[in-house]
Write a structure and sequence with these properties.
- The protein has about 220 residues and is an alpha/beta fold.
- It has one domain (about 40-220): Vaccinia Virus protein VP39 (Rossmann fold, 3-Layer(aba) Sandwich).
- The protein is built from eight helices and seven strands, in the order αααβαβαββαβααββ.
- The chain has a seven-stranded mixed beta sheet with strand order 3-2-1-4-5-7-6, covered by helices on one side.
- α1 packs antiparallel against α2.
- The radius of gyration is 17 Å and the shape is globular.
- The protein binds S-adenosylmethionine.
- S-adenosylmethionine (SAM) binds next to loops.
- The site of S-adenosylmethionine (SAM) has 16 residues, from loops.
Length: about 220
């Protein structure tokens, strides 16, 4: 972030969101995550000019929604996560603090009611390959003309970054806060395959900031 005022706005938003969590460990986690993960300012830059609702699949404790609200992003944001403990925390923060945020406990393999811009950050690799293909196909159908689907994940490749991410994710599964399911990191090609190049603009770029991980941001925009 080059601009001093944008950096200050980012820092203020991180501090305000973290302070809203009731449990000390979550305040610490939220502050560290928001400040170290480049996905939050990247999502803000991506969606700040849009007035479409935003759907956050695998929203966790709602950090993205709160961060965007603190940066004055106004459209409705709907978060879905299958972990009811995280949804409870997200709802507790949202209550009385932010308007037009909805958090639901549910599985991305179930019905997806909402439409608008969609984000899928760090979720895909928790699904088996056939569920990934099915979800990406369903999401491709839901992106409206001019709408955007942003996916952040760690593509499976031969890089040292990939192996480090894989290792770190397995280590993180040792805590009670993370899902203990088999991990299936998709390749770039497997993600792209769901989005016909006649219908979507398709980009992918590294988004690892100062982390040693192999995170990439995939952006699919339906052509008008
Ligand atoms: C690594 S966390 C990412 C949280 C948030 N998107 C972020 O980037 O900070 C992955 C989230 O995906 C959720 N998740 C995994 N599989 C899911 C599924 N099948 N349906 C809904 N949520 C799922 C987990 O409960 C977890 O909160």
């Amino acid at each position: 972030m080059k601009n001093g005022s944008a950096a200050a706005d980012h820092e203020d938003a991180c501090a305000r969101v973290a302070a809203r969590f009731g449990e000390r460990w979550l305040r610490i986690y939220a502050g560290r995550k928001l400040r170290s993960d480049p996905i939050f300012p990247a999502a803000y830059e991506l969606f700040r000019g849009s007035d479409q609702p935003l759907v956050d699949l695998g929203c966790g404790v709602g950090l993205l929604a709160f961060y965007l609200r603190e940066r004055n992003f106004r459209p409705l944001i709907s978060g879905l996560d299958r972990d009811g403990r995280k949804i409870d925390r997200a709802r507790a923060v949202a209550r009385g603090a932010y308007r037009d945020l909805e958090f639901s406990a549910g599985d991305v393999n179930g019905p997806l009611a909402a439409r608008g811009n969609i984000v899928l950050f760090d979720l895909l690799h928790y699904l088996p390959p056939q569920e990934q293909t099915s979800l990406l196909g369903r999401l491709a159908e839901r992106v409206a003309p001019g709408g955007t689907l942003a996916i952040r994940d760690c593509p499976r490749d031969r890089s040292a970054r990939f192996w480090l991410t894989n290792l770190a994710e397995r280590f993180a599964q040792g805590t009670t806060w993370n899902l203990k399911v088999a991990l299936h990191f998709p390749t770039r090609e497997e993600i792209f395959a769901a989005f016909d190049e006649d219908k979507f603009s398709r980009t992918v770029a590294p988004l690892w900031g100062r982390t040693p991980f192999n995170n990439h941001l995939f952006i699919f925009r339906r052509l008008a």
